What we know:
By secondary structure, the protein is α/β, with parallel strands linked by helices. The chain is built from ten helices and 17 strands. The protein has helices at residues 17-32, 49-59, 68-73, 89-98, 113-126, 140-150, 183-186, 190-205, 337-354, 362-381, and strands spanning 8-13, 39-45, 63-65, 79-82, 102-105, 130-132, 158-166, 209-217, 222-229, 235-243, 249-256, 261-267, 276-283, 286-291, 297-302, 313-316, 385-386. Bound molecules: nicotinamide-adenine-dinucleotide.
Amino acid sequence: MTKNSSPLRVGMIGYNFMGKAHSNAWRQVNRFFDLPAQVEMHTICGRNAASLAKAAAQLGWANTATDWRDVVANPAIDIIDITTPNDSHAEIAIAAAAAGKAILCEKPLAMGAAQAKTMVDAVKKARVVHMVCHNYRRIPAVALAKRMIDEGLLGDRIFHYRARYAQDWIADPKFPLVWRLQSKIAGSGTHGDINAHIIDIGRYLVGEIKEVCGVMETFVKERPLLESFGEGLTAKAGVKMGKVTVDDAVAVIGRFKNGAMLNLEATRFAHGRKNHITWEVNGEKGSLAFNFEDMNRLQYFDATAPAVHNGFRDILVTDASHPYTGNWWPAGHIIGYEHTFVNTFADFVAAVVSGKSVHPTFEDGWRNECVLDAVMESAKTRAWTKVVS
Ligand SMILES: NC(=O)c1ccc[n+]([C@@H]2O[C@H](COP(=O)([O-])OP(=O)(O)OC[C@H]3O[C@@H](n4cnc5c(N)ncnc54)[C@H](O)[C@@H]3O)[C@@H](O)[C@H]2O)c1
């Protein structure tokens, strides 16, 4: 890879929760990673000029635009970063591909597999570098787990991948009807929002999913309409009521193509669980286990070691020999949520300069949507459903 003297100029669409996380990552990425290009935070885009100006100043963007089409059409911009709700990803990404921009798009990639496929076709046709932002892949402990599995530490056969993503921020029935609870904007509820993440980790660590059997539930069917949106996931409720049109929770059993069994649960109704992502992989030679709320650690059990002193090892994944950690602090000086985005963006920037593919690609996003669709179909028909891709 050669040093590239011209900067990469980013145009970011959307500026709330993910907009903030992405802005921080764009700002930090050259500070901590030795990359072949400098990133320039060129334009931030949103629809409300007053709050956009405030966001630009706070988050560190040079210019503002109130229509994403102007950002996509701007020849000065190299990268389009999509942090808008799910229903706008496809339109923006397809236009960005046609304009020859590199694209980083938030997950879930689209509103379903069929729409995701149109995005895959667009980036392939335009030959632009693209990535879907499943940032949890680049938690050092998750990347280390991938390396350990690839090195064969769990053996050739994986038996189980079981994962749970549990939150509680909508457990209160008075929490308002935000866009994440409306199928026309979100596609699905907890399923596409957070089950998509643990599906992605499963595909990353274990492989493609063959068939699924899903159960979905909407516990609170009506909620107060939204009065105003706050920071992160917070919102203020109005008085009038509206219908919830997505799932609140989902459970899935299934099989991977390699014979491993799949077991997933995603819910926003687990009081006390804030962003509780846990998973365990069991293979013929050992097991790995992870909990996001203790994200600097990876649990490893080596079943080939003598039983007498054996047990789960608690690996503090902060050594310079671990993935990404050498870019941060000395061993034991732990990292957090925001670093997952910086690690992700560092790999993306390197790919944009080299022109090489970087995972997770839009194809990964589409395959994820194929699993999401199969689970929804299974829940609807109450039948085992093949993942069609
Ligand atoms: N990778 C992750 O872990 C993660 C976490 C949270 C959200 N997400 C994903 O990120 C996306 C955004 O989620 P969020 O929580 O940041 O949402 P949000 O509601 O907090 O922010 C969305 C932003 O998009 C803007 N917007 C909406 N439509 C627009 C348009 N047509 N043009 C310009 N701006 C527009 C809104 O004004 C707002 O600034 C979603 O797809 C979501 O699934 C990913």
